[in-house]
Amino acid sequence: MSNQENSLLHNQRHSLAHIMVQAIQRLIDPGLELGVGPAIENGFYHDFLWSKQADQELIKAEESIVKTTFKEMQRIVKENQNFLYIELPGKETKELLTFLGQPYTLELCQDLTKEGETKLGIYINTINGQAAEKLLAHTKPEYFKKYQEATNRLAKHTDLEGKFVTFVNMCKGPHVENSKEIPVDAFVLDKFAGAYWKWDSNNIMMTRIYGVSFETKEELKNYQLMMEEAKKRDHRVLGKKLSLFAFSENVGLGLPLWLPKGAGLFRTIEDFWNEAHRKNWYEFVRTPHIGNKKLWEISGHWGFYSESMYPPMEAGQTLEDQKAGKKVNEADSEQYLLKPMNCPFHVEIYKAEPKSYRDFPLRRCETGTVYRFEKKGQLGGLTRVRGFTQDDAHIMCRKDQVEDELQRVVKFILYIYESFGFKKEDVKVYLSLRDPKNTKKYAGNDEGWELTQNVLKKVADDMKLDYTTEEGEAAFYGPKLDFKVKDCLGREWQCSTLQFDFNLPERFDMTYINNKWEEERPYMLHRALFGSFERFIGVLIEHYAGAFPFWLAPEQIRIVPVADKFVDYADNVYNKLKDKWIRVVVDDSADSFSKKIRNAELMKVPYIVIVGEKEESDSTVSVRVYKTKEQLTMKFDEFVNEKVRENEERSL
Questions:
Q1: 543: annotated active-site residue
Q2: What is the pTM of this model?
């Protein structure tokens, strides 16, 4: 158990999950059927199903549920309830859960006993027996009757003299010892959601209520203010307001369409990416969007990654043939799959020509679009899509070059972040290792895994990275370093990844001739700096709240003439800026001058250039700066030179 999982705050949050469903049982639904209810980052949640005993009028509106439940939770906290842990044999646990009417918890109990558990943990909430009399008048009679009987049953297993049981749940904990350890003013209920039982879409959909909890009222308030700010920065909302991207049901869910401004932003970032890779001695390659089934069988994706891939398509016949019901001859059949990754293609590029030890390291990069299966309910704007452009690269090298190449990539990642305004202290690294208890889900042998995991750890230590080790999070072909960056609100976003692979070289029989004229296997590093362009742009939109630095802004300057007769001067200004590769627009619409200014501000254009009679006669421009709200007048040539320099320097 980690320190975080044993902290007071973690225990408070876990306990509040129990208190929440206890409150619902008391006042809304005594027969509430429970799912799981853990502590999570910033709070807690609990899954459940409404029973026939539920107050049907009350559960019609989420607002009424939240109000009633929250008020009762505060009451429970003030009751100074004890959280008592006991262990019961499997048989007695099943009998207890059957009595309580908890079929889903009973299912978990049966799963555990099948796995060999002989005793199961139970958490019991209790209050003073004398105080129980007040519950009879305050709660639903069915609730009181059930827990009166539960008290009698549990008294056979633990000392409950003078106590009344208010809630029971099979749970391994940990929890607070008493509800008085929970600040009554430092938690709130947040939102409703749906969740499949056991995270399986074939199972029933349960109701989930999230809560937020902190150690103090002040921390809760700060978090709520941050979340309000996060709503204003939501890239899905800003993406629409700023005309960056769109989605269409006709095109398909999770497949973003880049509008001209968004495509311009994408291209600016891609140009920077290309330039950075040329400077770092990468070679560019391009690969198809689909690949033969054989390719994915060799790579291992067919067996280890199939849950994230789309089914094969038959390429041995036309759509017309298929519509006509014609069958494909086995000899003519060709099955292809949309690629979820670029790596097998890069391996085949490697194998296209013989290699010598002198050729290494080989650094091949590509901005390649890949496609991965995501459930409808998990899609979200640009950060969770089905088709995305991975800023991919694969490095093939000798064993003696591995550490140096890994360090080069780490430095490259940090440089990329810094270029977009993220400092090294904003980056958190996660060392993802193989699950030692479930090695069957990974390709390769123990020796290879031990070597690659140790090397990655050494690099992380040598470079003094702030990293956390996570078992079971490795890719199926090797361990990795995942880089999460904190935005201006302190939220972590998964972006870069660096993976060490010894499996694909083996599977594809990759070789080179070493300095002894013998065949030897290269090592292979997978890395993505942004993770994907889509996700990284979504992060940037939220980080900058759509007000991008000048070099990134889709529209860098908007020229607003104060009257139609100054449009010619505006066009002259436009042409000179355009010749310097500045992204500039002239607003010569029929809107009023004040509305033109307002429109430019709503689009968060970094500089609004105003031209009128004085500006034309003096060869100047009046400039409004979006970021500082400053207004100034400059000689036109001076303004152009300054903006060109700002653009070239990629100032933040």
A1: no
A2: 0.84
Query: What contacts 343, CB < 8 A, 6 or more positions away?
Result: 299, 392, 394, 501, 504, 524, 526
Amino acid in position 507: R
Dist CA 44 CA 47 (whole Å): 10
Of the candidates 14, 434, 526, 583, the residue annotated as catalytic is 526
Report the distance separating Cα 434 and Cα 442, nearest Å: 7
Of 18, 140, 372, 543, which residue is the catalytic one? Answer: 372
Does residue 397 have an active-site annotation? no
Quick check: helix, strand or coil at residue 636?
helix
Catalytic residue among 14, 346, 480, 535: 480
Taking the C-alpha atoms of residue 631 and residue 628, their distance in angstroms, rounded to an integer, is 9
Q: Catalytic: 390?
A: yes
Specify whether 556 is catalytic. no
CA distance 99 to 152: 12
For 431, the 3-state DSSP assignment is strand
Supply φ then ψ for residue 628, to 5 degrees.
Answer: -105, -10
Tell me how crowded residue 446 is: count the other CB atoms within 10 A of its CB.
Answer: 10
Q: Of the listed 29, 190, 391, 392, which one is catalytic?
A: 392
Concerning whether 346 is annotated as a catalytic residue, the answer is no
Can you read off the two tokens belonging to residue 123? 């958490």
DSSP 446: H
Q: Which residues of the chain have pLDDT under 50?
A: 1-3
Q: Among this protein's residues, is 614 annotated catalytic?
A: no
